[in-house]
Specification:
single chain; alpha+beta; UDP-n-acetylglucosamine1-carboxyvinyl-transferase, Chain; four-stranded mixed sheet; 23 strands; binds uridine-diphosphate-N-acetylglucosamine; binds phosphoenolpyruvate
């Protein structure tokens, strides 16, 4: 049900939040369960929309998915996997980006895969050309039908020598999920190596796969004829952790993020320190806090791992509106991820967006018509405004801007935030945020 948040800003967020399994791993590990010939158990599963969507898609395909009512652990039994109609699958059209990753596992399990229209954040065109290209190289046949994409492999899936034009996270996962049970050896050059991909590799290895991550973005997979189920605890959501860290900076607060893992946040923690935030790491999480005084402006470029993750950019930009001086952010992963700055400008921030590459990372968007660099001048006093949430991270950014602003903000479209932040309203209350929720 749609609702509106009325936020009374100006209060520092203080306290503890817990983060659980990563949104960018958990649904993919669920898809991997289809590759096994025995059941799998996935632990540390968050209550987010993509988990619901994938649960439903697995059930539509005959996988028995049960959730432990106390722990939330998922038990997935794929032994009765079956075909589903396009009408059943299309009930999830536009819901998530994960359905494209069902291709390999469904072909291995039932001989064909039907893919509905994809959803996910609207932060650029987000084509699936790399996915379809690698599937064809494995021997799959791709038919675009009026209802969606039908993928089959009349002659089976065979290992291949592949190279991605850009280290796409999703296309790398597509290769992993397809190659592990394809016949022969697959070598992927130009692979993405995000921590969530390495955790997916850990899941597949538990299932019996043989995967080597070589240097220079090369992954080698030796196909095996069968895989078994796995038992795995998902790695924590580093993007949620980084968001709460930015929330602490923006509201001049102090947030302990239980579950945050330093190893996967190295690039973020360096930037957080340079901007003037303080953090303390212990065995169970990381405390992020604003030490008082002014924040420092900086020059930042988003990049694939091990660079500064694009999903950290939007909340950090809000912190940069509070830094003393001019900051520059060059977004090199998505061509259109600064739309959210319009609402920040209405709240009083000084941010200009430019078509030029304001950075040194060679970027696919230079000399084209994409507003993918931002210049932020601070510190700006933020005031409450009416905001309609545009996408997941943009929405979180608007929430933290509203929480720091003077006066009242009215925020609609907050359902999108549930895609990546489980029980965020409860967490915000626990941190002392002052807001009301009303059904629309
Ligand atoms: C569910 C999930 O895990 N989402 C994450 C995943 O998205 P996702 O896997 O969709 O992102 P990709 O890494 O594939 O996209 C990176 C870039 O490659 C382009 N591209 C991608 C595929 C393709 O076939 N053709 C193509 O041109 C995209 O438009 C984008 O510009 O990685 C992104 C980059 O770290 C994160 O922001 C998302 O949070
Ligand atoms: C872009 C994101 O997610 P998705 O790929 O699911 O749209 C995100 O998590 O910021």
């Amino acid at each position: 049900m749609a609702s509106v948040l009325t936020i009374r800003g100006g209060k520092a967020l203080r306290g503890t939040v817990s983060v659980r399994g990563a949104k960018n791993l958990v649904p993919k590990a669920m898809v991997a369960a289809l590759l096994g010939d025995t059941p799998s158990t996935l632990r540390n599963v968050p209550e987010i929309k993509d988990v619901d969507v994938v649960t439903s898609l697995l059930r539509i395909h005959g996988v028995d998915v049960t959730k432990d009512p106390e722990t939330g652990d998922l038990y997935m039994d794929p032994t009765k996997a079956k075909s589903a109609t396009s009408a059943e699958i299309n009930t999830h059209a536009g819901d998530s980006r994960i359905p494209i990753l069902f291709c390999g596992p469904l072909i291995h399990a039932i001989g064909e895969a039907f893919i509905p229209d994809l959803g996910g954040c609207k932060i650029g065109d987000r084509p699936i050309d790399y996915h379809l290209q690698v599937l064809r190289q494995f021997g799959a046949v791709v038919d675009k039908t009026p209802d969606g994409i039908l993928i089959t492999a009349p002659n089976g899936l065979k290992g291949a020598k592949l190279e991605l034009p850009y280290p796409s996270v999703g296309a790398t996962e597509q290769v992993l999920l397809t190659a592990t049970r394809a016949e022969g050896i697959t070598e992927l050059k130009g692979a993405a190596v995000e921590p969530e991909i390495l955790d997916l590799i850990a899941v597949l290895q538990k299932m019996g796969a043989i995967i080597t991550v070589q240097t220079d973005r090369v992954i080698r997979i030796e196909g095996v004829p069968a895989l078994r189920g796995y038992n795995h605890r998902a790695l924590p959501d580093r993007n949620e952790s980084a968001s709460w860290a930015s929330a602490a900076l923006v509201t001049r607060g102090d947030i302990y993020v239980e579950g945050a893992d330093q190893q996967d946040l190295t690039a973020f923690l360096n930037t957080f320190r340079k901007v003037g935030g303080e953090f303390e790491v212990d065995d169970d999480g990381i405390r992020f806090y604003h030490p008082g005084g002014e924040l420092n402006p900086l020059v930042l470029e988003t990049d694939v791992h091990p660079g500064f993750m694009t999903d950290w950019q939007q909340p950090l930009v809000v912190a940069l509106t509070q830094a003393d001086g001019v900051s520059i952010v060059h977004e090199t992963v998505y061509e259109n991820r600064f739309g959210f700055t319009e609402a920040l400008r209405r709240m009083g921030a000084t941010i200009q967006v430019h078509r030029e590459c304001l950075g040194s990372i060679p970027c696919r968007f230079g000399q084209r018509n994409f507003l993918h660099s931002a210049v932020i001048s601070g510190p700006s006093k933020l005031s409450g405004a009416d905001i309609d949430v545009p996408d997941l991270r943009g929405g979180f950014s608007h929430l933290i801007a509203a929480l720091a602003a003077e006066g009242t903000s009215r925020v609609t479209g907050i359902e999108i935030i549930n895609r990546g932040y489980e029980r965020f309203e409860e967490k915000l209350r626990g941190l002392g945020a002052d807001f009301d929720v009303e059904a629309l």
